[in-house]
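Study this one:
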Amino acid sequence: MSGVTMDKPLVADSAPEPAHSLRQARLPRWTPAAVAAGAVAVGTGIGIGAGLGSRIQWGLIAGALYVIATYVLAASVEGRRQAKDRLATSLVWACFVLAVVPLVSLVRETVSRGVKVLDGNFLSHSMAGVLTIQPGGGVYHAIIGTLEQVGIATAIAAPIGLLTAVYLVEYGRGRLAKAVTFFVDVMTGIPSIVAGLFVLSFWIIMLDFGYSGFAGSMALAILMMPVVVRSTEEMLKLVPNELREASLALGVPKWRTILKVVLPTAIGGIATGVMLAVARIAGETAPIVLLVFGSQVINNNPFDGAQSSLPYYIYEQWAAGNAASYDRAWAGALVLIAFVMILNLVARGVARWKAPK
């Protein structure tokens, strides 16, 4: 039996084809920054060449150029699909800048004008015996009024809002819960002047009580309650149902489960919501103008007599219409912004401190 011989050696039928690259061409990481810088330079040049005096117009031109240039470069290098993604990203950045620019401009203008008279004397004196056309005086009486009015409003609105949210999340069923939710939604959009008019007609006209800081606090509490209810309700809904079920399975009553399990878990978000609601009402002017009546002297009793506040002080000084009062109004606005900023920082700190580990 003879062996099998092969006339030709075993060779591959064809040469292996080169592997296609799975990586698509991409623009460098520094491209967006370079495009933005170029858009700003070109937009500025167009604005100057066209005789446009407003820098806002220059910025709008630069923003449009940035979006267009980003899309064109991405489409030519990365393809149309990636270009659409970069177009959406550039539009988001452009909208972000448009939202931040007014805020930065507002803070810059307030700081530059407010620091002219903002010092220790301004923070520790009232307007008692000071003419509006003369320099001097301070904002101490308005700070006292704001702290007392906002504190009383928080003491009224926070417990009511918290208990309402607990009812809606843990117990609310049927028509009553739907009605409460509906009225909370309605109160969320109520104008502040309406709340002031309600308290004015009921507390001052019908019940014949005088103007006071407490009257302003009641109007502020009306504005604050729906914000507390909504924020607390959303925080309670984020608590996992497994925690409630585990507690109830151990025989713990529902009220104790809410008190010891649900609320501690959501306390960080609840505190943040309350602080944000406080920051919202701290700058309300319309109900304060109607109800506290204003005062040039220090009134430490919010339940008796007219009282001032920071929003009313700013309105009062600006209405005086002279250079000295304008400076005091800007300084009062700076103090109010600092007060709101401190509240927001406290809210973030409490949320981080009390967040579940």
User: Anything to note?
Assistant: Residues 1-6, 10-15, 17-21 have pLDDT under 50 and may be disordered. The chain is about 70% helix and 0% strand. The longest helix spans residues 80-114. The CA atoms of residues 41 and 62 lie 8 Å apart.
